[in-house]
Automatic annotation (TrEMBL):
<keyword id="KW-0804">Transcription</keyword>
<dbReference type="InterPro" id="IPR014710">
    <property type="entry name" value="RmlC-like_jellyroll"/>
</dbReference>
<keyword id="KW-0238">DNA-binding</keyword>
<dbReference type="InterPro" id="IPR012318">
    <property type="entry name" value="HTH_CRP"/>
</dbReference>
<dbReference type="GO" id="GO:0003677">
    <property type="term" value="F:DNA binding"/>
</dbReference>
<dbReference type="InterPro" id="IPR036388">
    <property type="entry name" value="WH-like_DNA-bd_sf"/>
</dbReference>
<dbReference type="InterPro" id="IPR018490">
    <property type="entry name" value="cNMP-bd_dom_sf"/>
</dbReference>
<dbReference type="InterPro" id="IPR000595">
    <property type="entry name" value="cNMP-bd_dom"/>
</dbReference>
<dbReference type="InterPro" id="IPR036390">
    <property type="entry name" value="WH_DNA-bd_sf"/>
</dbReference>
<dbReference type="Pfam" id="PF00027">
    <property type="entry name" value="cNMP_binding"/>
</dbReference>
<dbReference type="GO" id="GO:0005829">
    <property type="term" value="C:cytosol"/>
</dbReference>
<feature type="domain" description="Cyclic nucleotide-binding">
    <location>
        <begin position="21"/>
        <end position="141"/>
    </location>
</feature>
<dbReference type="Pfam" id="PF13545">
    <property type="entry name" value="HTH_Crp_2"/>
</dbReference>
<dbReference type="GO" id="GO:0003700">
    <property type="term" value="F:DNA-binding transcription factor activity"/>
</dbReference>
<protein>
    <submittedName>
        <fullName>Transcriptional regulator, Crp/Fnr family</fullName>
    </submittedName>
</protein>
<keyword id="KW-0805">Transcription regulation</keyword>
<dbReference type="InterPro" id="IPR050397">
    <property type="entry name" value="Env_Response_Regulators"/>
</dbReference>
């Protein structure tokens, strides 16, 4: 029996109204973007795209939670980052015209926005404001990946979970998140490369430290800077 994904119907225009970069476009630029973009609903657990796929679209998260990851030659899954409401992915690969370097999986039922490569490149040629957004986005992404290398190699599991959660609250990479995040312990484990049980232990440690509050199916961030700097 086919699974039905229950997500409120929203127009492309309404979706774009919530994006940081779309607000800076001219009316003519925005009209073209609205006409050429489309949305797609992805079931939780399904692949959004695979490593090695040609990169034909810039992808944004209207609602949902995605994980960027790859599998090492030894068969170990390496999680790079989570993408939540307002986040966009694939800008670097579009610029370099190279195959995708990572898998993207929906951790829950999600609705995504797709901008064709031709539209993306046209905006680069015609909008200084869009270019400025991308420069900031790429810079934030680089800083995130540098920190990921650090905490993957140097930090204990509690600190890795703390840094992983903190990374979700980047105002440029995931601007649609408030301080209360609807996320399960299993999803936290998926994003941080830990088991559900180990993620649960880490969340308890972080809650006792006064950095967050854990409720059923959600986490409220109390001290974002503390999460970013947490060491076991």
């Amino acid at each position: 029996m086919q699974r039905i994904i229950m997500i409120k119907e929203t127009s492309i225009q309404d979706m774009l109204a919530k994006t940081m970069w779309a607000r800076s476009l001219t009316d003519a630029q925005l009209a073209r973007v609205e006409a050429e973009m489309f949305s797609r609903k992805i079931a939780g657990g399904a692949f959004v795209c695979h490593k090695g796929d040609p990169v034909t679209h810039w992808i944004g998260v209207h609602e949902g939670l995605l994980k960027m990851s790859s599998v090492s030659p030894e068969g170990k899954t390496v999680s790079f980052a989570g993408m939540a409401n307002g986040g966009w992915l694939g800008e670097g690969s579009l610029l370099k015209s190279e195959p995708r370097k990572y898998d993207v999986v929906a951790l829950r039922d999600s609705e995504l926005l797709y901008m064709p490569k031709a539209t993306y490149l046209w905006l680069l040629d015609n909008s200084i404001q869009f270019n400025r957004f991308l420069v900031t986005q790429l810079n934030e992404r680089l800083a995130l990946f540098i920190s990921l290398v650090e905490y993957d190699r140097m930090l204990e599991p509690d600190a890795r979970v703390a840094r992983c959660l903190a990374a979700l609250f980047n105002p440029y990479l995931n601007p649609g998140i408030g301080r209360e995040l609807q996320i399960s312990q299993e999803e936290v484990g998926n994003l941080s490369g830990a088991s559900r049980q180990r993620a649960n232990q880490a969340l308890q440690v972080l809650e006792k430290a006064g950095l967050l509050k854990v409720d059923y199916g959600s986490i409220t961030i109390l001290d974002l800077d503390g999460l970013r700097q947490f060491h076991s």
